[in-house]
């Protein structure tokens, strides 16, 4: 605990600069603020089919293409972050601007049904584009700001611990709150439902954003950016060589993309409806199981952070994926046997207990590494600084967002494709839809087969990721020498001549 409370003043005799525990906790709320919008965005499918009259296949493909657009604007946002500077710092203004843009996009997006018929689709497209710009800007700072927050390899995983707690509260606690308090008031995703739900998202996210700004404020200064005044000047032509030559960036970004795909698949509201509303016959079960999962999910996230502090981030990342893969196999057998009424928390059976354990562990161990990526992005950024002298936290963060966005675009698109392949392309199934052999296959493919494939691919890429705990300690030693160099030229010489 003493390390966590270390004074944050840069001491060049110490190779690390550290943050206080409360700073790490508050800054992690920036990811919580954007995750709230990600949770709310999961209801766009039902809004679009129910209030705008779009088919399930059209909206699933549209949401996929919008995420691809999001991915391609991310590198530009990364360059903006790297170049941006103001009297209020590099990161804080961008956090606030991103949150404001995202709030405006949600206000427009969920009012589209009030627009005349000829303008509904263009306004929807515009709102989705604006949303992705604001969301990506704020979310990119979460990854970019990691390197400035702390450089201590033992302290960095603490961010993942906080983030895991808040992510569990948002996605599992939020699911329970919606399905057991808001949805039952209306029994449909109506305009009245969204009129109550969306303002909650906007206001809560704004409060979390203010707290995140407070958390990063003392660290949002040049002395915490890479090697400080000795950072090499970055130009646009430098970006491609960095992307081409940085192997840890390439491998981690690809592995993270497949984990992100799993995260999107499990949290998608259509998936929740398929599992609980159709396989087991009660959509409210999704909220109840989410409530059951809150504490175990938090404990799993805390365990991942504790393991990462002792074994390193890479070891924790790979181990969690392996455990998740094993539980997904078990989940597949249980999904194949599922019938309406078999999952009843008021009358526990061997099957229901087995399903809860397999679902909870398969989902959490397969998706919690996405929280570790936020911290590992800082390791990749430090690796690049040690190799070239360039501090490009913004570009690093948005490269991860690029692969995240492209992979996560496959989530709604895959759901739409699978449903259409089994004859459900016109409308999403709901609680009134009878369980058929075709829908069982849909659930098995979306809930088990795709996540299993994603886990195996992520593990394959992680075999080529070299930034383990020992390597990161060597990198921080090298960065300390570069920081103490008399000027940027000497720092570049150290980067070019000293091996890690």
From TrEMBL:
The keyword Nuclease does not apply. Keywords: Coiled coil, Membrane, Transmembrane, Transmembrane helix. Residues 472-499 form a coiled coil. One of its GO terms (biological process) is carbohydrate transport. It holds the Pfam family MFS_2. One of its GO terms (cellular component) is plasma membrane. PANTHER family: MAJOR FACILITATOR SUPERFAMILY DOMAIN-CONTAINING PROTEIN, MAJOR FACILITATOR SUPERFAMILY DOMAIN-CONTAINING PROTEIN 12. The keyword Coiled coil applies. This is Glucuronide permease. GO terms for molecular function: symporter activity. The chain crosses the membrane at residues 36-59, 93-113, 158-177, 197-216, 320-339, 345-362, 405-427, 439-462. It comes from the Bacteria.
């Amino acid at each position: 605990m003493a390390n966590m409370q270390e004074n944050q003043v840069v001491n060049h005799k110490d190779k690390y600069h550290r943050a206080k525990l409360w700073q790490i906790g508050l800054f992690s709320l920036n990811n919580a603020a954007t995750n709230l919008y990600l949770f709310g965005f999961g209801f766009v499918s039902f809004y679009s089919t129910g209030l705008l009259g779009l088919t399930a296949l059209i909206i699933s493909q549209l949401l996929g293409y919008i995420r691809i657009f999001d991915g391609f604007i991310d590198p530009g946002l990364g360059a903006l972050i790297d170049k941006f500077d103001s009297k209020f710092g590099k990161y804080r203004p961008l956090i606030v601007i991103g949150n404001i843009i995202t709030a405006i996009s949600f206000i427009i997006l969920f009012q589209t049904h009030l627009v005349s018929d000829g303008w509904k689709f263009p306004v929807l497209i515009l709102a989705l584009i604006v949303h992705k710009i604001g969301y990506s800007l704020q979310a990119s700072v979460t990854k970019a700001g990691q390197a400035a927050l702390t450089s201590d390899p033992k302290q960095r995983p603490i961010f993942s611990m906080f983030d895991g707690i808040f992510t569990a509260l948002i996605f599992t606690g939020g699911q329970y709150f919606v399905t057991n308090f808001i949805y039952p008031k209306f029994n449909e995703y109506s305009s009245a439902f969204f009129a109550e739900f969306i303002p909650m998202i906007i206001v809560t996210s704004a409060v979390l954003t203010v707290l995140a700004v407070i958390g990063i404020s003392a660290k949002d200064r040049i002395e915490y950016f890479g090697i400080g005044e000795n950072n090499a000047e970055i130009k646009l032509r430098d970006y491609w060589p960095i992307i081409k030559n940085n192997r840890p960036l390439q491998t981690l970004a690809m592995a993270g993309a497949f984990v992100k795909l799993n995260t999107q698949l499990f949290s998608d509201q259509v998936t929740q409806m398929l599992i609980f509303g159709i396989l087991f016959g009660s959509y409210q079960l999704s909220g109840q199981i989410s409530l059951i999962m809150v504490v175990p999910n938090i404990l799993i996230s805390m365990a991942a952070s504790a393991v990462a502090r002792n074994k390193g981030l890479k070891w924790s990342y790979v181990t969690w994926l392996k455990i998740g893969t094993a539980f997904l196999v078990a989940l597949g057998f249980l999904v194949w046997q599922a019938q309406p009424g078999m999952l009843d928390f008021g009358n526990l059976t061997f099957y229901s207990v087995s399903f809860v354990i397999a679902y909870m562990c398969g989902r959490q161990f397969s998706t919690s590494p996405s929280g570790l990526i936020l911290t590992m992005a800082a390791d990749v950024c430090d690796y690049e600084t040690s190799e070239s002298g360039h501090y490009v936290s913004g570009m690093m963060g948005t490269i991860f967002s690029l692969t995240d966005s492209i992979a996560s675009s496959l989530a709604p698109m895959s759901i739409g494709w699978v449903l259409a392949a089994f004859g459900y392309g016109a409308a999403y199934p709901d609680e009134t839809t009878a369980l058929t052999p075709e829908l069982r296959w849909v659930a098995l493919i979306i809930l088990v087969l795709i996540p299993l494939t994603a886990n195996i691919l992520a593990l394959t890429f992680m075999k080529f990721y070299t930034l383990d705990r020992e390597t990161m300690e060597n990198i921080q030693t090298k960065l300390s020498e570069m920081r103490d160099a008399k000027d940027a030229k000497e720092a570049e010489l150290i980067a070019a001549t000293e091996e890690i």
